[in-house]
Write a structure and sequence with these properties.
The protein is mostly helical and about 190 residues long. It contains 12 helices and no strands.
Length: about 190
Amino acid sequence: PLSYAAEYGHESMVRLLADQNGVKVDSKDKDDRTPLSYAAENGHEAVVKLLADRDDVNITDSKDDSERTPLSWAAGSGHEEVVKLLLKKDRGRLLGDTIGQTPLSYATECGHKAVVKLLAGRQYIEVDLQDEGSQTPLSWAIYVGNEFVVKLLADRDDVNADSKDEHGRTPLSWVAGSGHEAVVKLL
């Protein structure tokens, strides 16, 4: 019941259930997802804050069966305020999941400009990490044709615009194949 209340943003119900004796607030479902994970994915800032502020919720180890964290779910869904809140609470889980995608990769792939800008602006976040297919946040931005994110990332000194994926393709070869002319001009 707590996971459902968190997923749908019912703050008063989450508070009521979380305060019951014997309720494990950090419980995991069949996919190892926690109530915090569902609240973060769905952008329920008040519920995320309520859960993240509790001593019996471990944000750092709140990973699902694919190693995604609440921060990763919030970033991939574009919930900027939730991302800000989680970044204040935990800096430790910014590495990739089981396929190597980071919160920045998910935000980039899904085109969430504000979240990409927020994450890329943090000194402790590596913006050029490759996932298991050797894709970087820049190559994801190119693949989906997001001009804003391509410009934001390509202008950085710590981003290798010529990195190669597992097939030897560079970001430029990805964009040439995708037909995003404006992105080609940026590169």
